[in-house]
Amino acid sequence: MGIYTRTGDEGQTSVIGGRVIKDDDRVEAYGTIDELNCFVGQAISFIDQTNGKFEDLREHLLEIQQELFDCGSDLAFVKISETKYKVRDEMVTRLEQWIDQYDAENPKVERFILPGGSLLSSTLHVCRTVCRRAERRAVTLGQHTDINPSVRRYLNRLSDYFFVVARTANARQQVADIEYVRSKKVFRRKDKE
Fold first, then answer.
1. Where are the alpha helices (DSSP H) in the chain?
2. CB contact at 8 A, 75 and 147
3. Which of 48, 75, 127, 142 has the fewest CB atoms inside 10 Å of its own CB, making it the most exposed?
């Protein structure tokens, strides 16, 4: 198999169903998802250095990597039937269950926190911010063409997931989150309301 094809040398690339310029909104969207997937892989490599503290998280992140490919695939189609979409709302519901599970481990937080702490937590915060950018790119794409709306919902919930598991990574390693001291109280736990 040849790695280089030279077909993109003039600034175009193939998508499923046609060719577009390389900075097309569609390419920006699935390209940002690909970038996110790389950072998720980096987080997994840090998990592999933690002596088994995060096997549940490792398993979830590996599943998320598969689903990020599904997201990119759904966005790469110029024309696709809804029946061929890979990303479904059940995946969003499952993310919500994981968020609740991990958040139950985390200490109470009322203010915004500064990204950081452990190496794993810092990387998961990078995942969160790249995920937000991927969501923005999907929203931009959806302004002028039909996209799978479940991809947008998935990316929105996934960024929440990364916020929560970044905190869990710190909590399990007994590293305190640092609150943004100028923040007002913005978080309230559902079980406290």
1. 25-47, 55-76, 89-103, 119-142, 149-172
2. yes
3. 48
